[in-house]
Design a protein that fits this description.
The complex is a heterotrimer. By secondary structure, chain A is an all-alpha fold. Chain A is 75% helix and 0% strand. The chains are: A mainly alpha, B mainly alpha, C mainly alpha.
C-alpha cells in the first residue's frame, strides 16, 4: 500500500490547520511568523503532490517561486520586528495595536 | 393692415423702452405725450385691422400672426402668436381708445409729481401687457399678458409707495391675483394633458367636436373661472379692488374700471365652447357668483363716503353683472356691458379724479357739495355717466343692462330678481354720490385750513387736457348703446344688434338662444320694468339726500363691507398664522430632521462599526480565518465542489 | 517501503508543527520548525522532487530558520511566553474552529475528488527532475524568474534601510 496523492493532500491540510491555529493563539511575533512558515510549507507539499499526480512540472516551479517569496518575506518581516522590538523588547503582538480605530 | 397686427402691442412696448431709457431726459410733459401717442398709434392700427376684418367674409374673420416659436419642447409646441378676430379686436379697440384718453388725462392729473415719467413707463407697460392678453392666440400668450397686468397693477397701485397704505394695497392686489393665477395655470396644464395644445383653436375645436370629456371641460372651465374671480374681483377674491383705490385716479380708471378687471370676462368668453361642453351646473356657479357679488358690492357702495370707494364697489358690482351674463349664456350681452361699462366707469373715475384735483386732493364726499357751480364740465360729464350706469334710456348702460336681465330671466327667475334689486341699488347709490358731490350745500369751507389754503379756498375746474377725455367719454356713454340695439319695433332693421352679428362666429357655441321663448316675447315689458327700477332707485336717493324726507340708511356693517375683509385678515392672522407656523415647524423638524437624521444615523453606526478595528493582529487573523472557513463551507458543502 | 518512509516523515512533520505551536520558549519553537522542514524535504524526495528537497533544506531549514534564531538571540526574546493566559477569550475557540474547519473541509473536498487526482505512478524516462525543472523555469517562466530576482534585491535593500540605526550627529557647534 503505497501512499497516494490523497494522503499527501490530507497531510498538507492538517499541517495548514495546525499553522492557522498557531497563528491565532501565540502572542510572540516570531513564533507567529514560524506558524506562517508552516502554512506555506503545507501549500508547497500539496503543490508537489499535484505536480507528481498530473505529471506537470509546473507545480514544482510554483514551489520554487513560493520559496523565493517566502524567503524575501522573512527578511522583511524580521527587519520590521527588529525595528519594533528595539523600542519595546517585551512587546507581544497584542501591545502593537497603534492601528486601533 | 392685418400683417401689421404686431404693431398693436409693439407701439406701447416701444413707448415703455423709450421712456425707460430717456424718461428722465424727456421729463414732464413730453414723456406723457409720448406714451399717449404710442397708445394712439395702437388705436389707429386696431381700427385698420377692424376694417380689414369687416372686409372679409363672416366665416373667415380670423387671422393668426405667428411671430416666432416660443416653447418648442417635444410634444409641446407653443408659438408667440397673435390672433385677430372679432372678440380680440373689440377688446383691443376699447383698450387702446380709452387707454389713450386716460393717458391724456393723466398728463394733467400727474402734473408736478416727481415720478411723472415713471408713471407713464408703467402705464405703457400695462397697455402692452393687456394687449398681449387679448390678442394672444393661445393660453400661454394670454397668461403672459395676464401676469404682466398683475405686475403693472402692483406697480401702479403702490405708485406712491412712501405711503404705507399704498404699499400694502399693492401687495394685497398682487397676492390675491396670484391665487387666481394658480387656477389659470392648472387649467393650462389640464388643457395640455388632454388636448396636447394650449392654443384656443385647438382647445375650442376639441370642446365643440366632443373631443373633451365633460369632467375635463368642467375642470378647465372652472379653473379658468378661479383665475377670473381673482382678476375680476368677484367674491371671494374681490378684497383687493377697494384697496386698490390708493393708486392715482388714472390708474383706477384704466386698470380697475376699463381694462384689467375685464380680463376675466374676456377669458371666459374666449373659452365659451369649453364652458358649453362642461357640466350643466358649471355655468350656474358662474352666474350665481356674479349675481351674489353684484348684490353684495352694491349694498356696500350705499354706505361709502370716499368718492373712489363708491366707484370701486360699483365696479365689482357691474363685473358681477358681466359674470351673471356669462353664466346665463349671454356672451354678447357680457361683452356689450363690458364696453359700455368701460365708457361710463372710466368717465366717472376720471370725473372723480377731476373733482379730487379741483378739491386739492380731498376725497371724502361729506366735505364736498355744490360742485356743479365750480366745475361745470366735470359735473356735466359725470351726470351723463351717472345716467348711463343707472340704466336710464337712451344712455349706453340701459341697453346693455337690459340685455343681461333678459337672458337672466330666461335662465333663472331668482337670478333675475337679484339682478333687479341690484339695479335699484345701483341707481340709488350713484344718485347719492351725485347729490353729495355736485348738489346740495357746499360743505368744504369748514375744512379749508386742512388743505393749507390761505384765505379763500375755492375748488377750480380742471385744465383742458383733463376735460377733453371727459367730454369724449361722455359722448360715448350717450351714443354707445348704438352698437347693440335690440329688436324692438321702433328701431330700424339695419341698426339692430350689430355687435351680436359681429361677434357671432366667436360666441356661437356657447351663446344661449332665447328667440323663441316667452321671455323674448315679453322683452318690451321687461325693458319697461328695468326703467321703472332705475327711476325708483333715483327717486329714493333724491328723497333721502336731496329732499331729506327719509332718513339715510347707512349702517356701519355696510360701511365696513360686511366685515369680510376684516374677517379674512383675522383668519389669516390668527388661524392662518398658526397653520403657517405649524407648517414651518413641520419643515424644520420633519424635513430637515430627516436629512440631519440621516447624518446622525450614519455617524452613530460608524461609531459602533469602528469597534471592529481593534488594532490587534490576532483579531484580524481570526476574522480572516473565519472568512476562509465560510468560503470553504460555501464551496465544499453548498456547491459540492472545491 | 514507501509507506514506511511516508509514515516516518509525516510524524516528523506533525511533531514539529505541534512543537511550534505549543512551546512557550521561542527557541524550542524554532527547533520544531526545523523538524517540520526536514520532514517536508523527505516527502519531496519521496515524490521525486529532488531539487526542491535540496533547496528546502538549504534555504528554508538552513537560512530562514537560522535567521529566526539570530533575531531571537539578538533581541533577547528567548524568554518564555505565558501560554496559560489568553487576554482575548474568543481567540482560542475561534482558532480551533478556523483550524479545524479549514482542515476538515479541505480533507472532505479531497476525499470527494480522490478518483480524479491523476495517477500515483512515477512517470518513467524523460529528463532528470532538475533538468526538467530548469527547462520549465527558464523557458516558460523566465519573466517571473527575473522579477523574483528583483524582488529579492528590493527586499534586502528595504530591510537594511528599515533596520538602520540613525546616527546622531556628533559635532555640535
Amino acid at each position: 500500500m503505497s501512499p497516494t496523492t490523497t494522503w499527501y493532500l490530507v497531510l498538507a491540510a492538517v499541517l495548514f490547520g495546525l499553522g492557522a491555529v498557531g497563528l491565532m493563539v501565540r502572542r510572540n511575533p516570531l513564533v507567529m511568523f514560524m506558524c506562517i512558515e508552516l502554512m506555506l510549507n503545507a501549500v508547497n507539499l500539496s503543490f508537489v503532490a499535484f505536480a507528481r499526480s498530473f505529471t506537470d512540472i509546473d507545480g514544482q516551479t510554483a514551489v520554487f517561486f513560493v520559496m523565493v517569496v517566502a524567503a524575501a518575506e522573512v527578511v522583511v518581516g524580521l527587519g520590521i520586528i527588529i525595528s519594533i522590538m528595539r523600542r519595546r523588547p517585551q512587546a507581544t503582538v497584542d501591545d502593537l495595536a497603534e492601528l486601533k480605530g | 393692415m392685418l400683417d401689421a397686427l404686431w404693431l398693436i402691442p409693439a407701439a406701447p412696448l416701444a413707448g415703455f423702452v423709450l421712456i425707460l431709457l430717456f424718461g428722465r431726459r424727456l421729463g414732464e410733459p413730453a414723456a406723457g405725450y409720448l406714451a399717449a401717442a404710442m397708445v394712439a398709434i395702437s388705436f389707429a392700427v386696431t381700427v385698420g385691422v377692424l376694417f380689414d376684418l369687416l372686409g372679409t367674409d363672416e366665416h373667415h374673420r380670423e387671422h393668426v400672426l405667428t411671430l416666432f416659436s416660443w416653447v418648442p419642447v417635444g410634444d409641446l409646441q407653443i408659438d408667440m402668436a397673435l390672433l385677430a378676430d372679432p372678440l380680440s379686436i373689440t377688446m383691443a379697440l376699447f383698450i387702446t381708445g380709452i387707454g389713450s384718453l386716460i393717458h391724456l388725462f393723466a398728463i394733467g392729473y400727474m402734473h408736478g409729481d416727481p415720478k411723472f415719467s415713471k408713471f407713464f413707463l408703467y402705464l405703457n407697460l400695462f397697455v402692452f401687457s393687456m394687449l398681449m392678453l387679448v390678442l394672444g392666440e393661445n393660453l400661454l400668450v394670454t397668461f403672459l399678458g395676464w401676469e404682466g397686468v398683475g405686475a403693472c397693477s402692483y406697480f401702479l397701485i403702490s405708485f406712491w409707495h412712501t405711503r404705507p397704505s399704498a404699499a400694502t394695497a399693492g401687495k394685497k392686489a398682487f397676492v390675491t391675483n396670484r391665487i387666481g393665477d394658480w387656477g389659470v395655470m392648472l387649467a393650462m396644464f389640464l388643457g395640455f394633458t388632454t388636448v396636447g395644445s394650449v392654443s384656443y383653436a385647438a382647445l375650442n375645436h376639441a370642446a365643440e367636436d366632443g373631443g373633451i370629456a365633460t369632467s375635463t371641460a368642467t375642470g378647465i372651465a372652472l379653473l379658468l373661472f378661479v383665475g377670473a374671480v381673482g382678476k375680476s374681483a368677484q367674491l371671494p377674491l374681490y378684497l383687493w379692488l377697494p384697496d386698490a383705490m390708493e393708486g392715482p385716479t388714472p390708474v383706477s380708471a384704466l386698470i380697475h374700471a376699463a381694462t384689467m378687471v375685464t380680463a376675466g370676462v374676456f377669458l371666459m368668453t374666449r373659452m365659451n365652447p369649453m364652458l358649453a361642453a362642461a357640466a350643466d351646473w358649471a355655468p350656474d356657479i358662474i352666474a350665481w357668483t356674479g349675481a351674489i357679488t353684484a348684490l353684495f358690492a352694491a349694498s356696500i357702495a350705499v354706505a361709502q363716503n370716499d368718492i373712489k370707494k363708491v366707484l370701486a364697489y360699483s365696479t365689482v358690482s357691474q363685473l358681477g353683472y358681466m359674470f351673471l351674463a356669462v353664466g346665463s349664456g349671454a356672451y354678447v350681452a357680457a361683452i356689450f356691458h363690458m364696453v359700455t361699462h368701460a365708457f361710463f366707469k372710466a368717465l366717472m373715475f376720471l370725473g372723480s379724479g377731476s373733482v379730487i384735483h379741483g378739491m386739492h386732493e380731498e376725497q371724502d364726499m361729506r366735505r364736498m357739495g355744490a360742485l356743479r357751480v365750480a366745475m361745470p364740465i366735470t359735473a356735466g360729464t359725470f351726470i351723463i355717466g351717472w345716467l348711463a350706469i343707472a340704466g336710464v334710456p337712451p344712455f349706453a348702460g340701459f341697453w346693455s343692462k337690459d340685455e343681461i336681465l333678459l337672458f337672466t330671466l330666461a335662465s333663472s327667475p331668482v337670478l333675475y330678481v337679484i339682478g333687479l334689486i341690484t339695479a335699484v341699488l345701483t341707481a340709488y347709490y350713484m344718485t347719492r354720490q351725485v347729490i353729495m358731490v355736485f348738489f346740495g350745500e357746499a360743505r368744504w369751507e369748514s375744512h379749508a385750513e386742512e388743505h393749507g389754503a390761505h384765505g379763500e379756498f375755492t375748488p377750480h375746474e380742471s385744465p383742458p387736457v383733463m376735460l377733453a377725455p371727459l367730454v369724449v367719454l361722455a359722448g360715448l356713454s350717450i351714443a354707445g348703446g348704438v352698437i347693440q340695439l335690440p329688436s324692438f319695433g321702433i328701431i330700424p332693421k339695419g341698426w339692430r344688434h350689430k355687435l351680436e352679428d359681429w361677434l357671432h362666429p366667436v360666441v356661437e357655441p356657447g351663446e344661449a338662444v332665447i328667440s323663441g321663448t316667452s321671455t323674448y316675447d315679453a322683452k318690451v315689458w321687461l325693458a319697461v320694468l328695468a326703467i321703472v327700477c332705475a327711476l325708483t332707485g333715483i327717486a329714493l336717493a333724491v328723497l333721502v339726500y336731496a329732499r331729506r324726507r327719509l332718513r339715510a340708511l347707512e349702517p356701519q356693517l355696510l360701511a365696513d363691507g360686511w366685515r369680510y375683509d376684516a374677517g379674512v385678515s383675522a383668519f389669516m392672522g390668527g388661524t392662518g398664522r398658526r397653520a403657517f407656523d405649524a407648517l414651518a415647524r413641520f419643515d424644520a423638524k420633519v424635513v430637515d430632521g430627516a436629512v440631519n437624521g440621516v447624518a446622525t444615523a450614519v455617524s452613530a453606526t460608524s461609531g459602533r462599526v469602528r469597534r471592529l478595528q481593534t488594532g490587534n493582529v490576532r483579531n484580524y487573523a481570526g476574522i480572516v480565518g473565519a472568512g476562509v472557513v465560510l468560503v470553504l463551507v460555501w464551496f465544499v458543502i453548498v456547491r459540492g465542489v472545491l | 517501503m514507501e509507506l514506511f518512509v511516508f509514515v516516518c516523515a509525516s510524524l516528523m512533520v506533525l511533531a514539529g508543527a505541534v512543537a511550534v505551536i505549543v512551546s512557550p520558549n521561542p527557541v524550542h519553537a524554532a527547533l520544531g520548525l526545523v523538524l517540520t522542514l526536514f520532514g517536508i524535504a523527505v516527502h519531496f524526495v519521496a515524490m521525486e522532487a529532488h531539487f526542491l528537497a535540496a533547496v528546502q533544506v538549504i534555504v528554508y531549514a538552513g537560512a530562514v530558520v537560522v535567521l529566526f534564531l539570530f533575531v531571537i538571540m539578538l533581541l533577547g526574546v528567548d524568554r518564555s511566553e505565558d501560554l496559560t493566559v489568553e487576554p482575548m477569550p474568543i481567540q482560542r475557540p475561534l482558532a480551533v474552529v478556523v483550524g479545524g474547519g479549514v482542515s476538515a473541509l479541505v480533507i472532505a473536498a479531497v476525499l470527494r475528488v480522490r478518483d480524479t487526482l491523476g495517477s500515483d505512478e512515477v512517470a518513467a524516462g524523460g529528463d532528470t527532475n532538475i533538468r526538467a525543472l530548469a527547462r520549465n523555469l527558464y523557458s516558460d517562466h523566465v519573466l517571473a524568474f527575473e522579477l523574483t530576482s528583483v524582488l529579492l534585491i528590493v527586499a534586502v535593500v528595504g530591510t537594511v534601510v528599515l533596520t538602520r540605526r540613525v546616527r546622531v550627529s556628533e559635532d555640535a557647534s
